[in-house]
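Problem: given the chain below (145 residues), write out its structure.
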Amino acid sequence: MTLHTIRVRARAVDLRWKWEPSAWREAAREGAVTIMTANQTPVTPSTDLPVIPQIDRTGAETDLHDRAVKRLKAKEEFRVHLLIYALVNGMLVLIWAMTGANFFWPIFPLAGWGIGLVAHAMDVYWRREPTESEIASEMDRLRSR
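Solution.
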């Protein structure tokens, strides 16, 4: 097979990865593919091909999609934070247990980091979105400055 530009139509998608010349010739006879040399002009797409529907994400739908992605990322970040908290503090408790110290000193990093972890959880799971009236009143307050 020489250098050709091959336009694959909907019926010949399964031939896309087959490079046997006989398969391409058979598909060309059936009208499933168009073989052109490099100096030919491109063929306009056939109108009998099915139209693939596109998702229209305009306006509120785009905003909702972006907010959902943002929340999912925040939840994943919290799960990673929780895992790191458990691993690091578990290691500190293990070090405390192996050294035989009487005073439970890992309580300080457990409590300090735990406060940050609870704040992160509240931000991810219990924070409410501001209402439109709250946003409008804040915008008015900023304008009056």
